[in-house]
Amino acid sequence: MSKKLTPRDKDYSKWYNELVVEANLAENSAVRGCMVIKPYGYSIWEKMQAELDSKFKATGHENAYFPLFVPKSLFEAEEKNAEGFAKECAVVTHYRLKTDPEDGSKLIVDPDAKLEEELVVRPTSEAIIWNTYKGWIQSYRDLPILINQWANVVRWEMRTRLFLRTAEFLWQEGHTAHATKAEAIAETEQMNNIYAEFAENFMAIPVIKGKKTESERFAGAVDTYCIEALMQDGKALQAGTSHFLGQNFAKAFDVKYASKEGGLEHVWATSWGVSTRLMGALIMTHSDDKGLVLPPKLAPVQVVIVPIYKGEEQLNQISEVANQLAADLRAAGISVKYDNRDTHKPGWKFAQYELQGVPVRLAIGPKDLEKGSVELARRDTLTKEFVAQTEVVDKITGLMVEIQDHLFNKAKSYRDNHITEVDTFEEFKEVLKAKGGFISAHWDGTPETENKIKELTKATIRCIPFDGEVKEGNCVFTGKKSAQRVLFAKAY
Amino acid sequence: MSKKLTPRDKDYSKWYNELVVEANLAENSAVRGCMVIKPYGYSIWEKMQAELDSKFKATGHENAYFPLFVPKSLFEAEEKNAEGFAKECAVVTHYRLKTDPEDGSKLIVDPDAKLEEELVVRPTSEAIIWNTYKGWIQSYRDLPILINQWANVVRWEMRTRLFLRTAEFLWQEGHTAHATKAEAIAETEQMNNIYAEFAENFMAIPVIKGKKTESERFAGAVDTYCIEALMQDGKALQAGTSHFLGQNFAKAFDVKYASKEGGLEHVWATSWGVSTRLMGALIMTHSDDKGLVLPPKLAPVQVVIVPIYKGEEQLNQISEVANQLAADLRAAGISVKYDNRDTHKPGWKFAQYELQGVPVRLAIGPKDLEKGSVELARRDTLTKEFVAQTEVVDKITGLMVEIQDHLFNKAKSYRDNHITEVDTFEEFKEVLKAKGGFISAHWDGTPETENKIKELTKATIRCIPFDGEVKEGNCVFTGKKSAQRVLFAKAY
Fold it and tell me: Residue range A435-448: average pLDDT?
C-alpha cells in the first residue's frame, strides 16, 4: 500500500498496470487473460451500470437474459459474424470430468461425455438472440423488440490487459428488432447518443461521435457507430459502439414479420454495447501520478474524513465533529467515509485515498477543534484550504459539481488540443510521433489506403466524425478525392 | 396468449410449465437445458436482486467479480467439492474454431487450438475465489473478507425444468473469510436468517430454517444451513443455502493468516447463495389456475388500468381519469400501467393480466365516469368491488400491504397444515401418499436409514429444523434412539 506509482511520463503502460492493482480495482487471475474485479473497482462499475440501466429503461428497453452458450450451428449462421469471432472463442466440448485412473487425486475430461454439438461461450449474443427472436416475431404487432442484457462474454484475446482487453469481460448488449430500416437506424443513433451523453456527463470523458469505416466495423454489421475518447498518452480508445445490423441476422435466422400491408418482410436489427473497458477509459482520462482521480458521480466514496489526533480523548472530541459532519453530508446525498482506524497513520491514509481517487478529503486536528474549521483537500487539483465546519456541507455540495465539471473541461481541453488537421503524409507522421492524439486528415475512402497508412504508422481510422464541418479535399496519402476529413489515431 | 392453463389438480407439472411460458417468464432455448429469461420474468428477478443486494450491503458485504472459468488443477484442489461437481460440469478444451475444409460454410474445432489445461465453467466459485483470497490474506488485519458475486453458473443437469433446474442459472454467491470458527458460524447463521427474512417478508413465502444432514450437504461444506419452502403440490423446495465451510478450502488452497497472538492459522470460510430457482418457488407458492399471482413487493406492475369504451371520445374521457389516477398512484410509490391499446379487447386484457399476476386491476367504463367510480379487482382473491375515484389511492396503498400479508398468511396456513408428525413408518408412507408436505419424524441419525427411507418413499430429509421443541424419541424406521424430529418430504 501507498507504494509510489511509476510516473506516467516514464512508462505510461506500467503506470496504468500498477494503478489498477494498487488502487484495488482489479488484478489478474489464475485463468489466462481473465481478471478479478475487486470490490472497489466493482463498485465503480456498479455505478456505471445503474446509470446506464436507467437510461436504457427510460428509452423503453427491458432487460432479459439469454444463454451463455451458442451451439456451433447457430454460431456459424451469420457468416461474417462467425468469421469475425471464430478465431478467438472458447469452446465447450465435454460435459463431465472423471477421476484420473492413473492418479486418484486428479480429474480428467471424460471421453464418454463428449457433446454431440460443440458450444461456443458467447463472444457476443446476436446468434443466440436472433434464433430466439425468430419465435417471438410473427407480425408487425410484435415489433419493436427493445431488449438489453447485462452479461459476461469471452473473447480469447492473446495479449490481454486489465479492463482494456481481457478474455472474459462484463458488458451490456442491447439487441433490438424493428419493422423498418429507418426505425433501426434511429435506434442505432439514439443509443450512440446515449453512450456519448453518459460518457460526457457521468464519466466526464469527452467523446467524438462517428461512424466506423468498413474495415473497423463490427463483424456482421452494416454500419457501426461509435464514441471515441482520447487517453492522456495520445492514444484513442473506443468507448462504446452501436451497430445497425440491417437484415443480416434476420436473413441468417429467417426472421420475418407480416407487415401492416400484408407482406412478409425480414426484420431490421441493431445491437449496441459498452463494457468494463470503460474502467480503463476512466482511469486513463483523469488519473495522475498519485493514482486514480474519480469524477464525483462515479466515486463510491465522495468524501473521506481523517482524524489527526494524539490519544483517545482527542480522538473522541474529533469524532464528535466528524460524525456530525458525516451525518450532515449524507443527509445532503453525499457518500462519506469516516476513517478512524488506529492501525494506520494519517499520512498513510492520505496517500491511500489519493491512490483510490476519493474526490474530497477532510482532515480534522486539534487546532481545527479550537477554530471550528476543517482542512479540505481536493483530489483533482491537489489543493488544500481551511473551511469553517458550518460551511462544509454547502462547500462540498458545490464542489461535487465543480470537480465533475473541472475534470470534464480539463479532459476536453486536452482532447481538443490533440486534434490536429494535417494535409500531407509527412506532417501526419510527424504529428503522430511528436504529439499523438487524433489526426484529422482526408482519406480517399478505400480500405487499401487505410491499410497502408496503418501498416506504415500503426494509426487507424477511429471514426468518420458526425459533427463538424464537412468539406471535400484530397487524400493525405494518395491525393485522390476525399468527401470529408476522418480521424486517425493509434488506439487501445 | 390468454390460452387456458391445464388446471393444477389435473397435472401440476404441466400447469407449471405452461404458466412459465404463457406468463412470459421464461422459455427453453436452443441450448440443451439453458433457458431464456424473458423481460417480464427478468424484471421480477431484478426486484429480488435489488432487495437482496441491499440486505447484503447493509450487513457489510461488497460485490466483486471472479472469472467464469476454473482451471482444472484448481477445480480438483478441494477433493469433496471436486467430486461433487465433476460429474456435471461444462469443460472448455479449445480456444478457436476454423473453417471446415470439407464445407466452407461450416466451422469445426481447431485441433491446433487445444488448451494446455482444460477450463471448467464454474458450477460454483469456491475454488477460483479461495485461490484468489490466498493473495489477499496475510494477517488478521485482512479479515474478515465479506464478498458477494452476482453471476451465472453452469451445472450439466440431465433433467432440466425452467427455473427449477437448468444447466445455466443466475445466482448470487457470497464467499467470506474469517479469523475464527465462531465468527464464520455466526456469518453462516446471519445469511441464512437474511434469506429467511427475504423469503417471508419480500416474497411472502414461509420457510423453515434448519440444517442439512450429511448426505444432503453442499460438497465441501462442514455444515449446510438452509431454508425450505413448501409448494402447493406438497413437495418441498430448497430456497436458499448458507454453508459453513470450516477450514476445508483454506487448507486446500493453503490460505493462512498471522493471528494477533503471532501464530499462523488457516482461515475459516462460509459461502451462501440463492438463485433463479426462487422464481420457481414464487410461482408454486402463490399462483392459481388462472396464472401467476405476485406479492405486490415483487410485482413489476402493481396496478393495471383498463379502459372500457366505445369510440374515441369515450376513450378520451376515460383516459383523462385514468391518467390522473395513474399519476396519483405513482406519486404514492405504486407502479402503474395504463393499457389503452386498441388492438386488444378488455376481456383479453383482463385474462392476460391475470395470467401475469398483476395484483390489482382497475377497469373504468362510461358508467364509472358518471358515478365517479372505478371497478377494482384483486388478483389474489379474484374479488371485485367499486371504489370511488377519490379513494383509489388510499384504497390501493392499503391493499398493497393487505395482499402481501394475505398471500403470506395463506401460504403459511397451507404449509402449517402440511407438517404432519408421524411415529410409525406405515403412517409415514400413508401421509406422504395422501397428503404430502413435511413429515416430522424421528430418525436415528444414520445415512443408512436416511437412504433406505429415500429408496422406499422418495422422501428425503429436508432439514433438521432449528426452531420448535427438541424432544428425544425413537426412529420411525429402525426404532433406534433419536435426538429430535427432522423434516422429511419429497422435494424439487
Answer: 97
Locate A475 and state its grid cell. 487524400
In B, minimum Cα distance to A46 occurs at: B63
Say if CB A223 and CB A244 are below 8 A apart. Answer: yes
Superfamily of structural domain B12-286: Bira Bifunctional Protein; Domain 2 (3.30.930.10)
> Which residues neighbour B339 within 8 Å (Cβ) at sequence distance 6 or greater?
B304, B305, B306, B307, B349, B353
Q: How far apart are CA B339 and CA B322, in angstroms?
A: 10
The pLDDT mean for chain A works out to: 97
Q: Which of B42, B69, B95 sits opposite A63 (nearest CB)?
A: B42
pLDDT at position B469 is 85
Q: Domain B296-403 adopts which CATH fold?
A: Rossmann fold (3.40.50)
Going by the DSSP 8-state scheme, the letter that residue B244 receives in this structure is: E
Fold of A298-403: Rossmann fold (3.40.50)
Look at A30 and B71 and tell me if their CB atoms are within 8 Å. Answer: yes
Q: Where are the domains of chain A?
A: 12-90+122-286, 298-403, 419-489
pLDDT at B343: 87
- CA–CA distance, A37 with A45 (Å, rounded to integer): 9
pLDDT tens string B366-423: 999 999 999 999 999 999 999 999 999 999 999 999 999 999 999 999 999 999 999 9
Three-state SS at A458: coil
Phi, psi of A31 (to 5 degrees): -95, 120
Query: Chain A: nearest CA to B429, how far in angstroms?
Result: 36
Tell if the CB–CB gap between B72 and A120 is shorter than 8 Å: no
Residue in the block written with cell 432449528:
B466
**Domain A12-90+122-286 adopts which CATH fold?**
BirA Bifunctional Protein; domain 2 (3.30.930)
The CATH classification number of B419-489 equals: 3.30.110.30
pLDDT at A317 over 80: yes
B contacts of A143 (beta carbons < 8 Å): none
Dmax (CA) of chain A? 84
Residues B276, B169: contact at Cβ < 8 Å?
yes
* Mean pLDDT, residues A360-365: 98
Distances (CA, A) of B418 to B229, B410, B435, B475, B489: 11, 12, 7, 21, 10
